[in-house]
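Comment thread on ticket #2218

A.B. wrote:
> Attaching the input chain for the structure job we discussed in standup.
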Amino acid sequence: MFRYLNGLITEKGDSFVVVDINGLGYKVITSISTQAKLNLDETQKLYCHLHVREDILDIFGFITEQELDIFKKLIGISGVGPRSAISILNVASVKELIAAINSGKSELLTKVSGIGKKTAERVILELKDKLEDKTDDDTLNRLESDVDVEEALESLGYNRRQAKEATQNLPKDLEGFEPRLKEALKHISGETKNS
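C.D. wrote:
> Ran it. Output below, let me know if you need it in another format.
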């Protein structure tokens, strides 16, 4: 029904934004990576999927068509609903997620997303080599390191969104768990001071 929504971002919640289009506010469920790219009081375009259930109409929105495409492929897998698909997309960037799937790294999907091992293995089985892969070993190594950094940040009491945003802002050339964790902590503490 919807291909995209183009409107003013008037509100940001934990897992959604509100898009105002001519005075009508649409609640759009988003991934963390999409949320990070959206700014309040700016007009933005979100590529959408309308999910219809017996009693609910949910709109899922993404900043890129590629993220929407992967979301649709994920919900096409038996046992993966839209909320689970969003959780999987919250694991990493689209590029890193494709690398993890094509490399058969189901443990990366289960560590942070909250989905079970069988579901992660089903995702790998059904999507491996079906997603365009232009990644290298560095991308996969960085993803593995960042998953560990996010887990460490969460164990220190930061929420998933803070941990994900901190790792997304790390320099790509910074390598290793410890240096990336230190840099992520600097980012979070700088963010806290500015709030």
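A.B. wrote:
> Thanks. Noting for the ticket: Residues 65-127 form a domain with the DNA polymerase; domain 1 fold (CATH 1.10.150.20).
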